[in-house]
Amino acid sequence: MGKRLSKIYTRTGDDGTTGLGDGTRVAKDSLRVDAFGTVDEANSAIGVVLASKSIPQDIRNILIEVQHDLFELGGELCIPGHGAITDDFIARLEAELDALNKDLPALKEFILPGGGGAAATCHLARTIVRRAERITTRLAGVESVRPQALRYLNRLSDLLFVVARVLARVENGEEVLWNRAR
Fold first, then answer.
1. How confident is the model at residue 117 (pLDDT cuts 50, 70, 90)?
2. Among 163, 160, 138, which Cα is nearest to 70's?
3. Would 52 be classed as within a structural domain?
4. Number of independent structural domains in the chain
5. Does residue 17 lie in a domain region?
6. Please, what is the Cα angle at 69 between 112 and 162, to 5 degrees?
7. What are 38's strand-pairing partners?
8. Is the dihedral of CA 8, 153, 128, 113 positive or negative?
9. Could you give the C-alpha distances from 102 to 95, 107, 114, 115, 166, in angstroms and in order?
């Protein structure tokens, strides 16, 4: 395990910079910091989903594993050149996605975020992951980012969409279908 923090504040960021995992100092508004910061935000949003008492244990296990993945992805983005996310992570998400999606009705309409508290929060987490993907894509345009990081974020947003659909049913909520004609 890395360094343990005995003191939370260091004052080293008071000048608008922060340290990357390799010791490099960069501006707090750099694309790299924005990317791993948004991954951290997504992880926190998944924590809010998990705070719901209505989450089935199989979904809870998937989301906890995702939280660990996101922590590793944040580390990968925080240390230029570091690799943590592998193709196995992505294959696991795809298998979970397929298993959860097989029992859901086919989509014929767009779904509006909602369907119950946990489902709505899962939709929010999905949109944060999409933002993390957009920022990481911009980062990849100017700095080295491994393709597994981008593929993982893309697949994770799909998984969260399906999990939100499952949670809407668990919570006895109904998916809100987009229908402008109402």
1. very high
2. 160
3. yes
4. 1
5. no
6. 25
7. none
8. negative
9. 11, 12, 21, 19, 11
| Any domain includes 147 | yes
Please name which of 180, 165, 167 lies closest in space to residue 60, comparing C-alpha atoms: 167
Q: Which residue has the higher pLDDT, 175 or 148?
A: 148
State the Cα–Cα distance between residues 116 and 49, nearest whole angstrom.
11
How far is it, in rounded angstroms, from Cα 71 to Cα 73? 5
Q: Which residues contact 41 (CB under 8 A, 6 or more apart)?
A: 128, 132
* CB contact at 8 A, 45 and 123: no
Q: Considering the domain boundaries, does residue 51 fall inside one?
A: yes
* Average confidence score pLDDT of the chain: 91
- Rounded distance between C-alpha atoms, residue 113 and residue 123, angstroms: 6
* Nearest-angstrom CA–CA distance, 39 and 134: 11
Tokens of 43: 């992880």
- Whole-number pLDDT of residue 3: 63
Q: DSSP assignment of 71-98, as one string? A: HHHHHHHHSTT-----HHHHHHHHHHHH
The rounded distance, in Å, linking the Cα atoms of 120 and 126 is 10
